[in-house]
Amino acid sequence: xxxxxxxxxxxxxxxxxxxxxxxxxxxxxxxxxxxxxxxxxxxxxxxxxxxxxxxxxxxxxxxxxxxxxxxxxxxxxxxxxxxxxxxxxxxxxxxxxxxxxxxxxxxxxxxxxxxxxxxxxxxxxxxxxxxxxxxxxxxxxxxxxxxxxxxxxxxxxxxxxxxxxxxxxxxxxxxxxxxxxxxxxxxxxxxxxxxxxxxxxxxxxxxxxxxxxxxxxxxxxxxxxxxxxxxxxxxxxxxxxxxxxxxxxxxxxxxxxxxxxxxxxxxxxxxxxxxxxxxxxxxxxxxxxxxxxxxxxxxxxxxxxxxxxxxxxxxxxxxxxxxxxxxxxxxxxxxxxxxxxxxxxxx
Length: 347
Known about the structure:
By secondary structure, the protein is mainly α. It has 13 helices and 2 strands. It has a two-stranded antiparallel sheet with strand order 1-2.
């Protein structure tokens, strides 16, 4: 473990401790919220880093799958605690906001970074690298869009929880049908021997960060409602922008850094895998978990979210299919996210 990484882990631990003190000692609303937000992003980094180290003992596909799954732990906790607090709008906008932030903002910045640092001003990558994942995303997003559109039109309105629960279970079955052969193909691949941490330390970090993410998420959600009132922003904006960016900060930075270094294939793969995990696994899993709660999470989405979901899936499929990313495409995606975020201020 490098000195810089050790120092960063220590700094995150200090910030998380301060966030806990601020929560239990009833510091000012904005101070508590700011500390909890930074601590949440820090826990996400530790989870991502330690997961990568544990995964290096596996194959590359299994590593990516493990990182994408466990990297969503902070977001999973935030949504669950938001639902427990009765914050349905925040929870729903947070999960779809994570998808939009990654598919529009992060993909746009990745394309911009990759294109501007490439010869000829065009980011080029192997189309096959992320084609399977983008197809999974397209199929699962269309299922969510169809169910959401039907519920918005009044079809099954009296049975929203039942329709959402069945659709979520079917989505997870699609994910399992994709992921099992995906991991099995990896069993024939090479195992990486390049690790920075011994396995016991990597596991300890992963467990500690997972537990820490649970506590920090509780503090974050507890300070969210007062902060929203203090800042004068809508619940939809808080979920779509603040919660989504804080809980996914690591994947965002990693994808952009890879693109700047010229690792275009890996950068695109990280982004597409992250979006697909949200649509195919995290969202339906949270819908099923919420069925045991007083405030359920459903696929009954606002019309603007339904349209944005369909556009996001189509854009990612188109970009991964032609193998090229132009600066104007990246900027258009960033602008689309900014416009969507602006609209949520008034929802």
